[in-house]
Structure formats: structure tokens, C-alpha cells
Amino acid sequence: MSLTSIISSASAALTKTQVAIAVSNTNVANAGDASNSRKTWSASANTSVLALSEGQIARTTNAYLSRTAIAKAAESGYAGVVDQHLQSYDAALGSADGGDDVASLLDAFDAALASLAASPTSSAEKASVVAALDDLVSGIGELSDEIQALRTEANRSIADTVDAINAALSTVADLNDQIAQGAATGGDVSGLEDQRDAALGELSGLMGVSYYTTADNRVVVYAPSGDLLVGSTAASLSYAASSTLDAASAYPADISGVYLNGKDMTTSLSGGELGGLIALRDEILPAEQASLDALAADLIDQVNTIANQGTAWPAPNVLTSTTAVSAGDAFSASGSVRVAVLSADGTVVSTQDLDLSAYATMADLVAALDGVDGLSAAISADGELVLSADDPSAGVALGALDGAVGADGEGFSAFFGFNDLLTGSSAADIAVSGALGSDASRLPVGALSDETALAAGDIGLASGDLATLTALTAALQGDSLSGAATRFVSGAATLVSSAAADAESAQSAYDYALSRLQNETAVNLDEELALLAQYQTQYEANAQMISMARELFDALVSMVS
Question: Is the distance from CB of 78 to CB of 271 less than 8 angstroms?
């Protein structure tokens, strides 16, 4: 081999080693970046004319593990965002220890009734019962508000997530172009490929995607529905978020869909954060609202039904219906109702049993009620049926007897809501009735006597009568209310706990997949430092060879001259 060949070969080897050292140094510098893969330099030939163009920088990859990690990112994104929102729901649920969960508030109402039973005429105990009832319905209402607030938050987050998805899609498309152009000119695109993988991972965490790589090293991305998201260009999702949701708001009637090229994609978006947010808004939280509504409706129905079978002591001077009526309304009923005017101590001033089947219209009924001695009846301008004792010191009491009004066969007082404790029909609008809230003495505790021969001068309502109070207590302690409240709280707690477990499991699976990928593709500092030492030795050996060859060449030149 000639000296010139030795110098050329050694120089080429130096160049190769310099590139290898530069690549290794870059690996070490980027070792802290989890998205950075290990790069290697490989020469395509080893000749005396070796140049940089005859080698290439490649990244360490594992296609299977990459796809696994990206798929797990979608599962983790979904479970994580569901868990995040349900943790807020968990805080709103309250706790038995704090006494502010629905079951505990129901128990507190029951306890207040028990205290009143020991002192049924105590104004303070009645006020405590009303306060406990208000706490209960406020707790239900506030929980309903929180559910809708979380739905609204999820809905707004959908808009933010759609923006993030569009940005990620654009990033993937831009990187596709850069990679294709770089590869076509023989440039190093390994770093761009790392960036694209990171963008795909972010995208999958947001919505879950599938993809494949083309022959020219472009990535084609599809939505779960199979619609193209990234081809030669990036598609764009669109979404118009509603400002505020309530219990009646539902997709698609009241809530816009997520669109891609004019197509509603909402129901097919089941992965990633976007899928989790949609599930929260349209399925998970509405199911909780429905359960809470059922509990509230049952509470309203049972408490009001029982309360309307009784009367307060002393009987109130005025009873006002919560049901709006008009004089011309048809009136359909059967059986009888007892109407009595009582003195402050419960003595009957007057009483009359009315045959409800005898009246065809509300006007007929009002006329019959107004005909009871000492009682006035009228329909107010607001459509309320108002019964009032003519004597300001007397009160009005109603006895259920066997009266059944309307298609549902409700009791007379229950149909009109004269002694309702609660208003509303769901968790969203449940409240203590205005009359009871402003005057706790109107709380029904006993019941008007149903003695057949009840007449003026008889005791129509005893001060110690606990008939209504006892019935309320039995209802609260029964399975339909106490059991339902306990099941609701338990079910909500299970939902929250399961979401947390799912999020932890999904995150662990993603971390494991990512860890396996990085074990194969990430930079190992020990290995890189060992390679650098090896490259340094190679560099020094080749440099020494060049130096020796030059010395020999100089010696030969000197000898010739």
C-alpha cells in the first residue's frame, strides 16, 4: 500500500470516527428527552474515498412497541380525564364523616323528626326539622348543580381538546413534509421522525388514532371511525361549545357535535381525552343526574303524600294550593274529604264531609268548600285555591278519608298540595315550600280525626297527635328513601373509585409500554460513554497513522532531494 493510500484511508476513517463521535455526543446531550431515540451512524462503504454522503444516521426503533405505546396513550388519556372530573364529583358528594353526603343529611332530617316527636308542640324543634329538611334538599340541589357544572366543564374542555387535536394533526402533516423532503435529498431525518412519533403519541392521547407509514416515509392517520385525518394534508375538526349545560341539555338535541368535513363524529370518538370528555358529558354524569333525580322525585312524592294526610297543630288559618287551577277546569274525583274549622286548641268549630263525586268543575268544588260554615274558598289571580277560616284565630284542617282525585287517584290535599313540604320534581328544582320555609309552625305533625260522628265541640286535632310525624319517620327509615339514599351514595362512591382504579391501571399500562420502548430505543449513557472512549481510541490511532505516514513521506522527500 502506498503512503498516499494510507493517508487517504486513515483520513476517511478519521472522518467516519468524527461523525460517530458527533452522533454519540448528540445522544448524550439529548439523553434526558424521553422522546429522543438513540441515533447510530453506519457507513455504506469503507474505501479510500469514503465521505459523509456514503453513510447514514439511523434511529433505534421498534415498530410494534411504538404502536403499543401509542394505543396505550389513548386508553390512559380517556381514563385519566374521566378520573380527573370524577374526583371533583367525589368532593361534591360529601362524606359520612363530614355528615354532608345525601344519606347523612337524610339521617339528620330523621333525627330532627325524632326530637320533635318528644316535644311535638315546640316551635324550636319544628324550626330544627325545617332547617334539617332545607339542608337535605340544598345538598341534593347543590350536588345536581355540581354535576351540571362538571358537564359544562367537560363540554368546554372538548372545545380545547379539539383545538389541541387540530394542532397535533397539523404538526404531523408538517413533519411528514419535512421528512419526505429530507429523505429525498439524503438528509438526516431521524430527529424529525422522533418529533413525529411524539406528535402521534400526543394525538392518540387526545383522541385515539390508527396509522401506517407509506413508502416515502409519510404517516397516514385515521380517526377511530376510519375517516382520514392526515394524508397529504391535515384535516381539521370543528366544535361549537355551549356556554352552560343544565340537566335537560342533551346531545344532539341541545349540544353540537364534533364535526370532520361536515360529518358528525361524536358517537365514534371513544378514545383518548376527547372520548372521555364526551362520555362524561353524555353518559357518565347524566346517569348520575338521573339517579339523583329519581331519589329527589321519590323524596318529594313520599314526603308530600304523607304531609298532605295530616295537618299542623295548631291548624293554619289559611291553606293555599301549590297546584294552579281555574274555575272552568274539569274536576274528576271519588270518595269524600273532611273539611274542618278548628279553634287554636284543636276543638272543632265546624266540620263537613264533602262527596267529591258531586262536583264536575273546579267552580263547583270551590262553591261547596265556600259553603262550609266558617270557611271561605276562592281561586286567586295566580290560580291558587285558597281556603281560609273566617275567624282569624281559627284554622283550617283537611282529613283524607277515602277521597281520590284525578287520574292518579291522589288524596284531596295531595292533589292540590295544600300541605306540601317540598316543591319541584327533580334534584335540579327540589326546595322546601315557601309557606313552610317562612313559617315552621305549618309543619304537619298530627291528623284531623276521622271519627264518623265528629262534630262541633269535639277535639278534632290533639296537641300530642303524632300520626303524620310517625308516618314521615317510617318513610324515611324505609328502604325506598333511606335505602335509596344509601345506594345512591354507595353507587357514586363506587363509580369514583372505579374511575381512579381504571386511570391508575391505564397509566401503568402506558408507562410499562413506554418503558419497554425506551429500553430498546432510548440512550443508555453508560453505553454511549463506552462508545465515546472507543471512538476516541480509534481517532487517536488513525491520527497517529496519518502522522507516521506524513513523517515517512517527509523522510522520502528529504532523501530524494
Answer: yes
Q: How many CA atoms lie within 13 A of 282 on its CB side?
A: 19
Give residue-wise pLDDT tens across range 231-286: 999 999 999 988 789 999 999 999 999 999 999 999 999 999 999 999 999 999 99
Cβ neighbour number for residue 117 with a 10 Å cutoff: 17
Residue 424 CB-half CA count within 13 A = 24
Q: Could you tell me the three cell numbers for 102? A: 345525601
CB 73 within 8 Å of CB 204 = yes
Q: Which of 163-177, 364-378, 508-522 has the lowest mean pLDDT?
A: 508-522
Q: At what angle do helices 63-93 and 484-521 cross, to 10 degrees?
A: 150
CB neighbours of 280 closer than 8 A, spacing ≥ 6? 81, 82, 85, 150, 151, 154
- Cα distances from 177 to residues 56, 172, 188, 192, 218, in angstroms, run 20, 9, 14, 10, 8
In this structure, what C-alpha cell is assigned to residue 385? 285555591
Burial (CB < 10 A; 0-12, 13-18, 19+), residue 114, is middle
Residue 41 has phi, psi (to 5 degrees) of -110, 130
Sort strands 228-230 and 404-405 into parallel, antiparallel or unpaired.
unpaired
